[in-house]
Design goal:
It is a single chain. By secondary structure, the chain is an alpha/beta fold. A 5-stranded mixed sheet has the order 1-2-3-4-5, with helices on one face. A hairpin with a 2-residue loop joins strand 4 and strand 5.
Length: 167
Amino acid sequence: NVSSIEELDAARRSGADGIGLFRTEVLFLRAHDLPSEEAQYQVYAAAVRAMQGRPVIVRTLDLGGDKPVAAVPLPPEANPFLGYRGVRAYVEHQDIVRAQLRAIVRASAVGPVQLLVPMVSSIEEVLWVQEPVAHVQTELAAHEVPFDRDMPIGIMLFIIGCIGICM
């Protein structure tokens, strides 16, 4: 698990077979403004290059809980670790999600990328995520932007009292 290019280099030098979780929220936490699609693409593509053909699982933005993003105000909650966070915040922040998905899908042309969606608690959330991914892929294909058409999509399953990863 990594959250920066520097950590990727150390993982590769230590013999990692891949990156099980690239935490993208760090890009959002470090800045006062939201990172652009291009800025995100540059980081994700550099991560994929650094792993030299080994898979990189990129987790989409996990807003909320212990990860407040200054540029994305979230409503206060009694228990922010279990409530409005991860995929549940995406519907109201579709412009952020779309830019991030475009950057991740574009980076899949550089090497093996797998997409991981955090804090999924229902089939409706899985179905909702599939639509913008498919839309981004269709859009990129129409503009002849290369990407891996078979990029795996997984979820970080959230059940009260349990968090697990399903690919």
